[in-house]
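Data availability (excerpt). All sequences and predicted token strings are deposited with the supplementary files. A representative entry, TetR family transcriptional regulator, is shown inline so that the format can be inspected without opening the archive.
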Amino acid sequence: MRVSRTQAAENRETVINVASRLFRERGFDGIGLKDLMKGAGLTQGAFYKQFASKEDLAAQASRRAFESAFNRWATAISAKPEDPLGAVMAFYLSMGHREEKMDGCPLVALAADAARQGCEVKASFEAGIKAHLEVLSRLLAETEDSAAKGKAMAVLSQMVGAVTLSRAVNDPDLAKSILDAAAEQIREVAAA
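Structure token line:
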């Protein structure tokens, strides 16, 4: 049965959205096309009409995951404009974010996987990292420091590392301590 162009476009968006979430939960190699398409409510045959390869989908799903991450950062910042960096840290370094494997940060969920992927996926991650650094640089520039870009790199690395480590442990108290220690160190870096 033939689908309309509108329906095909909607199906494509659905697959990208579902892949974005499932890749963050299971990794790029942790889910096959059959299960991915099943999650989107479509058949595996529909995949090849929409995407050149699984890497093509992984790159597009990564871009979608970064869009979601930026929207969440923007929401946090707009909720607390008097302390935007504090708002981002409060959201990002929270136990709630630690638990959000399907909707959490793509850097935490997929950076190690992305390092083993092809150029297209790495390009999506590079763009996402640069965009995160740009936001953090702006937030840190408000601290009257000319080294905001370097600080942004350190802050992003520490935030991603802290959430990654917190997800790697079973003990919720240890996980929270890791997140809290990172937040404290980031506040010191921002204030310096």
